[in-house]
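Quick one before lunch.
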Amino acid sequence: MKQYYPGHMEKGKHTIRRLIAHVDLVAEVCDARIPKSSRNPDLVKWTCSKRRVVILNRKDLADPAATELWLSALARAGEEAIASDGNSGEGLSELERVIRRGLRVMVVGIPNVGKSSIINRLARRRKAPTGMKVGVTRGLQWIRLPGGAMLLDLPGILRPNIGSRETRYHLAIAGLLPEDVYDIEEAAESLLAYLRQRAPENLTRAYGGYTLESVGRSRGYLLSGDRVDLKKSARAVMHDFRAGKLGTFTLEMPEED
Ligand SMILES: Nc1nc2c(ncn2[C@@H]2O[C@H](COP(=O)(O)OP(=O)(O)OP(=O)(O)O)[C@@H](O)[C@H]2O)c(=O)[nH]1
Ligand SMILES: [Mg+2]
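Model of the magnesium ion complex:
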């Protein structure tokens, strides 16, 4: 499997080390559905000299009860944390209260977690480019908020060595990996297995069954010889999950203490 270096770790590390002295606050954005896998421990290490706020973004797609558990687990671990929806802006007022006073804020996170979307909501304008694709933000850009604070938008930074198979699947399912670095059929199978356990009725309602085969048949994704187009079916499941059409789920829970 191909190695994956979005935003280039070395360059990102250099940029953050160079700019960290010039900011007052670090907002670390992650995905509320996978708060473990969507954090890059190196980002924490490089920014730990500053006040930090962890943002559990895409809360609209996560299980609300699980998000509450994560917020209290992070608080117990001494981390300031909020949950947000970067599209609607819900949950960001707490962050606005913190950054109102003309602060300089560095927004960090792995690719495609919603950093630029959050910045646009806070700026009340679409100043930073966004998109449902990994690696939209290329260079760095300072964005001024109405209250005078400055926000720094950076490209997402993911570790080249992502970790376990499970982490890779979780990132893939959440849409945080480019499609050419994982096997979409395998990732979709693991998602179907998870959903079958958690919410089987959601699967039968959507596809009339629990397998890629049933997804393809229900959608009419057929190849010659009445075979199901498994790749197309896998894409459909992933797409439906990411759009929240199969329900709201948090794939990773905080460790019990
Ligand atoms: N459902 C949902 N979608 C979101 C949320 N926040 C952002 N998005 C979507 O996620 C996609 C990625 O958002 P970006 O803001 O471009 O993400 P980024 O972290 O800046 O990505 P890079 O610049 O590639 O690192 C966009 O399609 C956004 O509309 C959210 O809270 N909920
Ligand atoms: Mg961006």
